[in-house]
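Exercise 7. Predict the structure of Peptide deformylase from Virgisporangium ochraceum.
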Amino acid sequence: MGTGESPVQRASAEFVTEFARWRLERGLSKKQLAAEMGFDPSYLSHVEAHRHRPTEDFARRAEAVLQAGGAIWRRFREYDELRASSRATRQAATAPAAQIPSQRDSDAWLPPSAGLVVEREVARLSYVDGRYRCTVRRSLYNAGNEPVTRYLIRVAVDRFPNESERSNQYHREHPLTWDELHLIASCGGERMEWRPKTDRDTFKEAWLLFENERGRFPLYPGQRAMIQYTYHVGADKWGPWFQRAVRLPTRRIRIELDLPMAMRPVVWGVETTLSAESVPLRTPIEQEIEGDRAVFGWQCENPPLHARYRLEWRFREPAESAVPAQRTVVAAGNGRGHYVPGRTEPAPAPPSVRMAAAGIIQRGADVLQSPGRWFDLPRESALAEETVERLGLALVHVARLHRFRKGIGLAAPQLGLSLAAAVVRPVGAREPIVLLNPRVVAASAETDEQFEGCLSFFDVRGLVARPLRLTVENSLISGERIRVTYEQAVARLVAHEIDHLNGQLYTDRMPEDAPLVPVTQYDQADQPWVY
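Solution. The predicted structure, encoded as tokens:
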């Protein structure tokens, strides 16, 4: 085409280029493709030579045979709309203005007979304190004929991405687990339950279900929904890469990296498609500074199906590790200690110090002595979800510091947040208990006494009487109030966290003269409560 070509001519040329590219990628000759499409080979040759104008029927058949993920169909729609607009402009003197298209129809980019499609995806990976947090938001549209009841997601790790044998061996010894992922998903403010599909050392697949304990909320044909899911992986298992694969027809995709400025990150990107292997991204990666964080972003429109986009990075400054206090190692002999010159090892920090280092607010802080503010739901659903996510991540981190054989819980005030939210993980439970704006509405007269610990003063244990059965009224993200009854150990864990949300500690429930037992003298630390 010459430099004086019209927008319509350029759009026609782009359609032909896209069509020819997919024909070559599928390894089909013009004659073979024409036979599968039901056209005369000469007609197909004329279209590729720009001698015949493409028709809607031609574009539909080409899309169906070549299975281009909507790429061919999008190019045709762009061409067809420009052609219609150009024709309408020429007739503007007699045609009403409303007949002139002002913008592309929101569904025009979709391929024929499309099913579930992604109108926009934003995937963000953040590195904080030796862990990566991945949050993916997808705007979905059901362009098919059947309701969608579940959505498949994938999580893959590769510690040494360019050394497959070394990486496989490493992950056999350090497999990825569901517990550490702490997967949380929601759809339009509704929590989504999830079900594992594939469970391997380096690869996990899970179905996000359009349902929860309140009922089902399928995505019906013609409806749109925003889903979000978050998971976490330690830096010991996640290599320096973040990849997104296009598995559904997608209109827009954006990838973000949130990294600490102090580590002086360097970021680059590559893409892989059916026609190219690991070529540099075709557009530059943007960078913004947000406080002490560097946020790198890259995006594109209408990515081809099966394309993979990967951001990679390196840190020019390693993460600073705390230098622990040292103690001398002595060898016992004849009942006397002997100094071993030149050998030192870290002195174990007290439990409270380790919890404080993990971000747990310690006893004496004002935030632990006042009730947490209730959420205004559903208006503050985003704040509630973010708070629950922070609690879940903190629990995963704390669980690495101590074995919790009785279960574990954490309330928002213990993270310095004066909000009425807590998360409880009973022993053996796959899903945590999420408490939002909880209120005890009934408690059994029958009680028992058990020793409790608290992350906000973890050096001691105290004997506390609690009801054996507890009924709690709790809020869902939607604002609906529900009632749940808990018993025995779970009731104790829930009651402990609700006390935190009311500005109380377990010591407030003990007699004034009751002693606290140092954890070094407590011999039931590794034992569950007995009932």
